Amino acid sequence: MALDYLPVINTHFTLFGGHLETVPADWQWPAEEHPAFELMYILKGRQRTITETEELVLQAGELTIIPIETRHANFALDHRAMTYFCLHFNLDDPALRYLLIREYAGRIITPWDAIYSQLKQQAEALIAMIGPDYTLADQPDLQVSVIDVIMTLVKDLKATGKFSPQAADVDQFRLCHQLASDLKAQLDYQVYHAAVPQPLSVARIIAGRNISQSYALKLFRKYYHESPQQYLINLKLTTAKELLQQPRARINEVSAKLAYTAPSHFTREFKKHFKQTPREYLKELKTNSTN
């Protein structure tokens, strides 16, 4: 006799904490990456978020999800204080991680999105739980609240017909993500540890994963919508902004750390990507710090 049954499910999620903070007008946070998703909710002011592949400007009331291990830097805009809430969480199901990254990376959730009201309400419920200490009785409420956030995101994917993880897609995305991590690790070593920075060989890094250059190109175009070489260029330019923010930063020194053949080449790529030259960016930083 056939019996209906519920499946065995052994999926875990982790809450890595969260906080509410009001920061001054000149606030900026250097580029970093987390081993978790980061939900950001702007309550007051505006925030610019620069990731490896794009630049987002979040208005008060808007939310975004920064994916796992995505390098990003945040800045307050408008010469005024900004209040934001961030929540760090992760889950161990690779298919769900893949879907959240695929559909929410680079997306700003605004009042025009179907999930906006519910997600905002859940973020505000978590804000209301913030306190100086927590008891064992508080843990179930926190766990349920984080699960509610995850379920809101997942249900949105189901409602829009985007909940279709295939095993091959998950495996391919994992490999592509590993290649991206290799590029970031090599760039970090070149910039922060190498005595004499040398240009990175994308081909050599791809070969280290024992796959062909054409297959790597296919993966990056599928999941990052650009070539591995362009992905590396975006990484370098995001790092350039971080280096230019350091006290007494010099354009030729930043160019050398990133192994550009000449400062003029660095300037051309920087302007193409950010619509301003490194010198104009330094001037903007100086103006913001004095206002």
TrEMBL record:
Listed PROSITE patterns: HTH_ARAC_FAMILY_1, HTH_ARAC_FAMILY_2
Keyword Nucleotide-binding: no
SMART domains with a match to the protein in the record: HTH_ARAC (SM00342)
Origin superkingdom: Bacteria
SUPFAM superfamilies: Homeodomain-like, Regulatory protein AraC
Keywords: DNA-binding, Transcription, Transcription regulation
Keyword DNA-binding set for record: yes
Pfam families: AraC_binding (PF02311), HTH_18 (PF12833)
Domain HTH araC/xylS-type: 186-284
PANTHER family according to UniProt: ARAC-FAMILY TRANSCRIPTIONAL REGULATOR, HTH-TYPE TRANSCRIPTIONAL REGULATOR EXSA
Protein name in UniProt: AraC family transcriptional regulator
Organism: Levilactobacillus tujiorum
